[in-house]
Amino acid sequence: MDAYRCIVSKRDTRAYLDKPIEEEKLDKILQAGRMAGSSKNTQPTRLVVARDREWLKELATCGQFTQPLLAAQVGIAVCCPPDGSDFDAGRSAQNMMLAAWSQGIASCPTSIHDQACIREKLQLPQDMQDPATGRKGWRVVVILALGYPSPAVPMSLGKKRVELGELVHEERW
Fold first, then answer.
1. Which sign does the torsion angle of CA 23, 24, 27, 28 carry?
2. Is residue 113 within 8 Å of 139, Cβ to Cβ?
3. Mapping DSSP to helix (H, G, I), strand (E, B) and coil, where does residue 150 land?
4. Which residue, 78, 48, 88, 65, is CA-closest to 14?
5. How far apart are CA 25 and CA 32, in angstroms?
6. CA separation for the pair 142, 37 (Å, rounded)
């Protein structure tokens, strides 16, 4: 699948088959996350991969809208240090979701609302502090749920995308 088709056809998907993701495919997904650009090439993100279904359910308790993790074959926690950029983490996450989709693997980003919960469960390092913000310790920006899409569940809710003419403004609003 070419890059443009991958981008325009990818949809967040919350229903997955009970089929493991092959290691070679997962490695490509993780490599895509590693290769994401970052501000000043700081490469701040780190990834925690969870494959155990019961452990994924446990991690899901740290967020409010984490149901996709309950059916996922793999979860990838995208982590940042205290001075790391959520934007850089998002770039890594998007790379991984597109790399997954290019291999027929669906994904959905899930929000983590309880950082204390996820820090404890993933045993994230807490010894760093950002001098500018005072923020301490590593945090999870997002956990990606991954799996082969279930053909029984539509990948789109049928809602149309905003038309390009409504989205784009030239020079000024």
1. negative
2. no
3. coil
4. 65
5. 11
6. 17
Q: How is the beta sheet containing 74-80 ordered, strand by strand? A: 46-50, 74-80, 139-147, 106-110
How many Cβ atoms from other residues are within 10 Å of residue 1's Cβ?
13
Domain 3-167 has CATH 3.40.1160.10: no
- Residue 136's DSSP bridge partners are 129
What are the boundaries of each domain within the chain? 3-167
Q: For each of the chain's 173 residues, which pLDDT tens digit applies? A: 899 999 999 999 999 999 999 999 999 999 999 999 999 999 999 999 999 999 999 999 999 999 999 999 999 999 999 989 999 999 999 999 999 999 999 999 999 999 999 999 999 998 877 777 777 899 999 999 999 999 888 877 778 889 999 999 999 99
Tell me whether strands 74-80 and 46-50 are parallel, antiparallel or unpaired.
antiparallel
Please give the model's pTM, rounded to 2 decimal places. 0.93
Token representation of residue 153: 């569940």
- Contact at 8 Å (CB) between 148 and 17? yes
Could you tell me which of 6, 27, 33 has the C-alpha nearest to residue 101? 6
What is the token pair recorded at 91?
Answer: 């770039």
> What CA–CA distance (Å, rounded) separates 148 from 113?
26
